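Reopening this ticket.

The earlier resolution said the output was attached, but the attachment link was broken on my side. Pasting everything inline this time so it's all in one place.
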Amino acid sequence: MARIRVGDFQVGDRLPTEPEVMAELGVSRTVVREAVSRLQASGVVETRHGIGTFVVASPSGMNLDTSVVTTLHDLIAMLELRISLETDAAALAASRRTDGHIAAMRGALDDLQRDLNEGRDGAGSDFQFHLQIALATGNPYFENVFRYLGTATIPRTHIDTAAFAAEPGSAYLRRTNSEHEYIFEAIKRQEPETARAAMRMHLSSSQERLRRASDAKASL
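Inline output:
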């Protein structure tokens, strides 16, 4: 991101390959792929299979390094931000959504359920569902902020959030997905206040679980 921001790579330029970046920076393939994923989520780069990854937009003026969102305190703070943004986004989406938005949200939820059925954590599909809600607001600033934050908004990309739930991990993920369904149905029915409440319940539940875990850790 920094080299794109300072102009080393311009729109249309192809980024170095994974092995080239690994050799230059001395980092693992996992680190490189996570960085590219964040750039993709931010809409800054696009990967063309068999060709390479290209810069397609200049980074925004925001300067928030989401790679440092790693501690329970960081994740609680991120959820606090998300509650303030996404509750209103859900209400706006319920008022402004189109049939196309509903189809895209349904697709993201179906992908998430497939991920869970096949034993994957579904973080990418989870992010896509929330991104589609931002898109349905019709306000590009909601979309831009959410793309910039990327998958750092999803706590389980950093820690095993199921470990902090009262029920087994698979049951926790199913309950989380059922919360998504409540949000989706409220937006589909075009009920702004119900959508707002469903989103607040979903994010606040995650925040409270992490807060309890943080308090327990502090008391040790």
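Reporter confirms the inline version is readable. The radius of gyration is 18 Å. Strands lie at 45-48, 52-55.
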